[in-house]
Design the sequence.
């Protein structure tokens, strides 16, 4: 059988040195080929796994940069949309100002308002034509009268020896006036004593619908003892304490209270007198003693009258049922200006474009001008993010609306439109600033993330990358060592052969 090859100690030592050098050359060549000094966990577990963790995070953050970049584009699309919307609103404002400078239409006029109620007729208490007075000398003529229950007053006249009917009438009238005044009333205003229809007797008449009277203790006066009541407006209404409130042309409320107290209304005459003093009503209001009349003058501003009552029974009794609430004068528009009419159409066309543009300002399915929100995630765990709230900037969202035909014929309407457009411009500029701030934040985070990715990757590389200069120098040194080891091995072998030749 064969025998093992026996090497001398010197040859064996040189051979082992040559093998170690070859292994070192192989490792160095591998590091130069891969560029890494740590290629697996076997090379350096700590560096390998730390580098892998840093690389993984850098990769995760790098993938987020794409979504951050898309968020930037979404914000830019919204910003461009706001810029364009601003131009459209400015264009609409320019149109409104052109309309303002165009000749005005003829003034709209508003017809006069007349409201007339037909309350039930009042009746005045009267004794009617009394019996004929018998003219006699040295005779006392008298009767007692109680007005509205305040207490009876006796009216008396005693004739002398030459009394005539006229003297008796005059005497009774004089005392009647005194007694009526004593009772708190006024003869000739509230109540009267006059000759009867035949001119040979007397009668007592209430002059106001709230005067009631009782005649008694009649002596030679030719009157009948009885109760003679009037029927007043308050009697027809039925209940005191009701109120009628009147407001003219949007002015303050003016309240009329029905009743028998001070300042309250009980008769139609009192009601009409009060109506005649109300602020804002035109001449002729309350002038009738048989109807309830409210008049508001015509004019170039919208006129109106508002009637409200504390109880529907009151307006029914006054014949005003159909006039509760606000009544306005009928408007007669002036001749429309053709330029303003044309500009109305132009204005509405611009507003339609605002709706269209706001709907088109989307990017990748997100429209920050149509109510969508945008969430931007800044780290790999999702714990750092920014939510950008969208807005709805169609014409309604900007506080604008399509105008109706004839709207620009009024300078006042144009002023309101311009004010609304100014508010819309302020809204757009404010939101543009917000989006700009959000864009700056996203760009800052994008730059930060890029730098962090670079830092992480650099750190990961520092743990595993080889120094090619150093490795190249090492390879050159190892190759030199290998050559020297080969030479030494050859010399050792030659020395062994020389010894063998001594035994040859």
Sequence:
């Amino acid at each position: 059988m064969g025998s093992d090859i026996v090497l001398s100690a010197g040859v064996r030592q040189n051979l082992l040195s040559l093998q170690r050098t070859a292994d070192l050359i192989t490792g160095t060549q591998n590091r130069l080929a891969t560029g890494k000094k740590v290629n697996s966990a076997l090379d350096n577990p700590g560096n390998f796994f730390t580098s892998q963790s840093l690389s993984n995070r850098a990769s995760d953050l790098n993938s987020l940069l794409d979504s951050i970049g898309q968020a930037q584009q979404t914000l830019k699309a919204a910003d461009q949309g706001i810029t364009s919307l601003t131009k459209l609103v400015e264009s609409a404002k320019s149109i409104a100002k052109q309309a303002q400078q165009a000749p005005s239409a003829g003034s709209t006029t508003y017809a006069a308002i007349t409201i007339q109620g037909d309350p039930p007729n009042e009746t005045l208490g009267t004794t009617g034509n009394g019996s004929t007075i018998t003219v006699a000398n040295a005779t006392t003529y008298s009767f007692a009268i109680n007005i509205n229950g305040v207490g009876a007053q006796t009216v008396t006249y005693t004739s002398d020896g030459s009394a005539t009917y006229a003297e008796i009438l005059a005497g009774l009238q004089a005392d009647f006036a005194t007694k009526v005044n004593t009772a708190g009333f006024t003869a000739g205003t509230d109540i009267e004593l006059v000759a009867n229809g035949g001119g040979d007797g007397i009668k007592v008449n209430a002059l106001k619908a709230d005067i009631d009277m009782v005649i008694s203790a009649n002596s030679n006066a030719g009157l009948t003892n009885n109760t003679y009541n009037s029927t007043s407006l308050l009697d027809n209404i039925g209940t005191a304490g009701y109120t009628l409130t009147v407001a003219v042309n949007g002015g303050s409320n003016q309240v009329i209270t029905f009743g028998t107290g001070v300042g309250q209304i009980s008769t139609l005459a009192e009601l009409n007198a009060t109506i005649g003093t109300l602020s804002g009503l035109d001449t002729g209001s309350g002038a009738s003693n048989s109807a309830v009349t409210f008049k508001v003058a015509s004019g170039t501003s919208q006129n109106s009258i508002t009637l409200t009552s504390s109880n529907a029974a009151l307006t029914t009794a006054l014949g005003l049922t159909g006039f509760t609430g606000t009544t306005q004068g009928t408007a007669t528009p002036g001749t429309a200006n053709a330029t303003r009419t044309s500009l109305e159409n132009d204005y509405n066309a611009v507003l339609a474009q605002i709706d269209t543009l706001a709907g088109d300002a989307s990017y990748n399915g997100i429209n920050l001008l149509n109510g969508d929100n945008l969430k931007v995630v800044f780290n790999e765990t999702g714990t750092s993010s920014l939510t950008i709230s969208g807005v709805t900037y169609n014409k309604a969202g900007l506080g604008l609306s399509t105008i109706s035909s004839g709207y620009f014929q009024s300078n006042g309407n144009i002023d309101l439109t311009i004010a609304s457009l100014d508010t819309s411009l302020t809204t757009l500029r404010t939101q543009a600033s917000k989006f700009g701030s959000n864009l700056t934040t996203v760009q800052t985070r994008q730059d930060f993330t890029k730098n962090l990715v670079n830092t992480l990757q650099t750190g990961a590389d520092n743990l595993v990358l080889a120094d090619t200069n150093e490795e190249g120098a090492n390879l050159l040194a190892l190759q030199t060592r290998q050559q020297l080891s080969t030479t030494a091995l050859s010399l050792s072998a030659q020395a062994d052969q020389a010894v063998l030749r001594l035994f040859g």
Q: What stands out?
A: The chain has four domains: 9-62+468-501, 66-107+337-453, 113-120+235-332, 140-229. The chain has nine helices and 16 strands. The longest strand covers residues 140-147.
